[in-house]
Amino acid sequence: MKNNLLVFGTQDFNNSLNEIKEFLNCTLVFYHKKNFTDLLVHEYSFVLVDADVCNDIEILNIISKIKNKSILLLISNRPSNTSDLTLTETVSLPLSLVEISEKIMNLISSRKFNQNSSIKIREYTIDKNERKLKKGPLTITITEREIELIELLFNEKKPLSKNFILKKVWMYSDDTDTHTVETHIYRLRKKIFNKFNDEKFIVNSKGGYLI
Q1: Which end of the chain is less congested by CB atoms within 10 angstroms, N or C?
Q2: What domains can you pick out in the chain, each with its CATH number?
Q3: What rounded mean pLDDT belongs to the chain?
Q4: Is the pLDDT at 139 greater than 80, yes or no?
């Protein structure tokens, strides 16, 4: 699946990016005034801004409204009005087209890694690399199996039976003792309650367990 790269640049800058299309696993979406409303409803792998357009207040206002603007790369060759932009990285020209394409792909790869290593659940965050569950300044260590269990419950968005959880997390058959699930959930709930005083992180309903 290709990444969407939204570009705010001068005509010369846009032409330069078109020259490196073959190096990128990206769909380049170029801003112009006629399509700015449509741009706001989409998500992008990141937004690439040429500093030469950053003195345009209208463009800065549009950038501030774009969804999922967690990566913003600024390629600049002269001072400009970027004080209102939250930049992931600033790259100064001159760079070759190959270097620009490598920088873009590195940023996309970095973002995907960060997305895959962190899960946001309400006011909690799971750091899969550190195996931590965090809420504000408070943190507990959780096991890899507990991470798999939380991910499953969170992603399904509906109550899950013990048998279903056994199949998905432990790869067990229907006739396996379901106390495995109950024991793990009991221990996880206890850890969460002891640290965060939260009894409702994992809920047990008629249909099973859910987050």
Answers
A1: N
A2: 3-116 (3.40.50.2300), 122-210 (1.10.10.10)
A3: 80
A4: yes
